Amino acid sequence: MKKLLVLLLLPVLLGGCTATFTNLTPRQQPRNANHLYPVEVAFRSRQQSLRWETIDPKVIVGSESYPLRPVPLVRNRWEGMIPVPPGTNLIHYRYRFDFLYNAMGGPQPDSALSPTYSLQIVD
To answer: Which residue of 4, 76, 91, 118 shows the fewest CB atoms closer than 10 Å?
Structure first.
């Protein structure tokens, strides 16, 4: 019986959270006076135990993180603003989604981290 349980749980343990990030931010944006630039991402997961109402999305620039908010009327999309210092022409950023998922013994924390993206600021 224990061997059967291990075999049944193996795909879950090896699969983990199968998150997909789709960066919807243009790779280039014109420089603006307030030095804040919009970013947008679509997040999908096949993890059925994910508790969608607990998602805490952020965009990470260097060691700083900035909150994302849901896009109105569109499911699974978030938007936010990132600062780019004056004189900087290229910045790298990632998305991080923290959430809870249902597990034996109660909800457990987890997170998904996107690949690194680049934003070029053009004059």
So the answer is: 4
pTM comes to 0.84
List b or e across 44-60, with b for residues whose CB sees 16 or more CB atoms inside 10 angstroms: ebebeebeeeebebbbb
Instruction: Mark the ranges of the chain whose per-residue pLDDT is less than 50.
Output: 4-15
- Whether 3 is in a domain gets the answer no
CA within 13 Å, CB half, 20: 5
Domain residue limits at 64: 18-122
Q: What is the DSSP string of 77-111?
A: EEEEEEE--TT--EEEEEEEEEEEE--TTS-EEEE
Residue 48 is part of a domain; what is its CATH number? Answer: 2.60.40.10
Element (H, E) at 33: none
